[in-house]
Amino acid sequence: MANHNEIQHDFPKVNRDQLITVQDLLDFKQQLIVDIKKLLKEQSGQPGHQWLKAFEIKKMLRLSESKLQYLRDKGLIPFKKLGGITYYNSEEIEKLMASGKLNDQMKMA
């Protein structure tokens, strides 16, 4: 989980005698909302990043290594391979789970 000290903001340092514009406040609000959503997502057990590794997918879907390999081989689960490491897009996996297609395919496997 991200520590609040690890969250980086792109806001310049504000001095005591400096004026803050409405746009500055709106920008701060947007960044704050993004940070809160990310923290809430991580708190709920969902990954805070888009690309997941195989061990994360196996844990999330409660799959064995061989079942995950089967789903990849059959083209049932989208993935990308980079430098020998297989990555899975968390949004695509969530869509598959929500549609029920992945559960149907896992029952047939």
UniProtKB/TrEMBL annotation:
InterPro entries assigned: DNA-bd_dom_put_sf, HTH_17
Pfam families with a match to the protein in the record: HTH_17
Source organism per UniProt: Mucilaginibacter terrae
Boundaries of every Helix-turn-helix domain copy: 51-99
Name of the protein described by the UniProt record: Helix-turn-helix domain-containing protein
